[in-house]
Structure formats: C-alpha cells, structure tokens
Amino acid sequence: MRPCHGMDGLHGRHGVVIHNLILVRYNMAAPKQWLAGRAVNLDNSWLSGRERLYFDYCLPSLRRQVADGFKVLLFVDERTPTDLISRLRSDDFVYPIFTTEKIDSSEDMLKEIVDKTAEFLEKDRCFQSDNGTKILATTRLDSDDALSPDYINLANTAYIDQECGKEIYVYFPIGQQYIESSEEYLEFVYPGNAFGTLFEPITDRSIKTVMHVQHTKLIKNHKSVSVGSSDPHWSMIIHDGNVLNKRRGHASGANFFKM
Q1: Is 59 exposed, middle or buried (0-12, 13-18, 19+ CB in 10 A)?
Q2: Would you say 133 and 199 are in contact if contact means Cβ atoms under 8 Å apart?
Q3: Is residue 177, in this structure, part of any structural domain at all?
Q4: Domain total for the chain?
Q5: What percent of the chain has pLDDT over 70?
Q6: Which of 26, 140, 191, 227 would staple 173 via disulfide (CB 3.0–4.6 Å)?
Q7: Is 225 part of any domain?
Q8: What is the end-to-end Cα distance of the chain in Å, rounded?
Q9: What integer pLDDT is reported at residue 206 of this predicted model?
Q10: Which residues pair with 198 in a beta bridge?
Q11: 3-class SS at 179?
Q12: Between the CA of residue 69 and those of 62, 65, 252, what are the distances in Å?
C-alpha cells in the first residue's frame, strides 16, 4: 500500500498537507435526458468499451504520475458486475466507490460524488492521521481521458506558490486531443476544460470538491490560477463512443505526451 502522506516537502515548507484525490466517473447512472440514443451504463457492450478505454488510456496516465501518495476514487453504479469491480481494483491507489442508481439530474450526480467523497474521507486513515492544516485537492478526470505524468506535481506547485491554505482552483488551459482512429495528436487550448483541480482547506469536514458545480463554472466561482505551461497537460481521447467530445484541436509543434 502507498504510504500515508500528502506532499511531504510542501508540508515542511508551509505547515500544510495536501491530500490529492482524482475523481473519476466510471459508469455512474446518468440523468435520463443524457440517455437518448446512447448505450446505458450497465449495457455489456458499453461496459466492454469503457473498460478498454480506461485500461488503455486513463489508468496508465495515473500509473505514470511523478507524484505519489494520491488516491483515485472511481465512481461506479452499485449494480456493476462484481467481476468488473475486481478488475478495477487492480491498483492499490484505486478505490471503487458505489453510487446510487437513482440519478435524475446532473445536480443529483454532482451531489452524489461530493457526498461519497466526504464519506471516503471520514474513513480514510491517512486523512485522519495528519496534523497541521489539511488541504484537499480534487481533480476531475473522465474514465476515457488522461493526464500528463507531471500533472499532479505541477498543480500542487502552482497552489503552493499562491496563498497556501486558501481555496483556489488551478487549471491548465492547454491540452491535447488524441484521435484514436488515426493516432493523431492535436493541440487544444480550452481554459474551461474539465481537468482542473480545486484546493480547499478542511476545517469542519465540510467539503466542496471540484465536482460541486459543472466544470465550466469553476473559473468564475473561485479564485483561479492558470498554469502557464506551453505543453499539454491533459488529453481528450477521441474515440467511436464519444458523444460530446469531437475533433476541435489543431496540429502544432506542441510537446505532446504520448498515449
């Protein structure tokens, strides 16, 4: 098992411990209005495709993180087949979190994620044991997308360079699209992307997480810091099953991270 620590070096500098959680929706029940013309989250064909995308792209990008000590909460429908759940437990930093089948709106979905994250923290030995100021850093990631290897480290550093101990949203405006069918990489500049990290102090077990509102509202709702790197630090995987994500990037000489 990974040791109980946030970012030890940052703890020494600022008297805080950062707890990094990656929040990944895997196959949560979706609001009914999202389902028209789509395979539902328990359909065998959809689950098979999602498992391939997760193990081909999402999980490898988390295994390659330079940072350690982070945890991944994988939100799954409580009716998910047990054999799939067993495969999703392949890494000790991944925690499948069972969610209700009664999701009637996008607001219900976000609230379920926030509530389940709070329940996880209440039971987490690492979170309970640290002294000093606890900072919860939650990063949003879809189960068919990926992060650059230095994503967590860069987000933490960007936060520490600000008023450490305050609530701040850190985001990377530059990412990439990987076109699976052609193995093509495109640069995609999108400040309102869904890959940001919300840092928040924990004082009374009340948390927001990066999922408390739709991702397009986070920059407006919080003090925000843009990481000014010219390299992509997140990747949308464009595949046959995409519903919303389409080819929108452009070819460039960017330093793409490989899938």
Answers
A1: buried
A2: no
A3: no
A4: 1
A5: 85
A6: 191
A7: no
A8: 26
A9: 79
A10: 138, 169
A11: strand
A12: 12, 10, 34
- CATH classification of the domain holding 97: 3.90.550
Pairing, β 133-142 against β 197-202: antiparallel
For 111-232, strand residue ranges (E) read: 133-142, 146-147, 168-171, 174-179, 184-189, 197-202, 224-226
Contact yes or no for 210/230 (Cβ under 8 A): no
Does the pTM exceed 0.85? yes
In this structure, which amino acid lies at residue 34? Answer: W
76: helix, strand or coil: strand
- In angstroms, rounded to a whole number, what is the distance separating the alpha carbons of residues 22 and 94? 9
Q: What does the block give as tokens for 230?
A: 């010219």
Range of the domain at 121: 8-170+194-213
Mark out the alpha helices in 146-242 (DSSP H runs): 151-160, 218-221
Q: How far apart are CA 50 and CA 117, in angstroms?
A: 22
- The whole-number average pLDDT for the span 82-103 is 95
Pairing of strands 174-179, 133-142: unpaired
Task: Report phi then psi at 162, rounded to 5.
Answer: -100, -155
Of residues 8 and 58, the one with the higher pLDDT is 58
The answer to whether residue 231 is domain-embedded is no
Instruction: Give the pLDDT band (50/70/90) at residue 134.
Output: confident
- pLDDT at residue 9 greater than cutoff 50: no
Asked whether residue 187 is domain-assigned, the answer is no
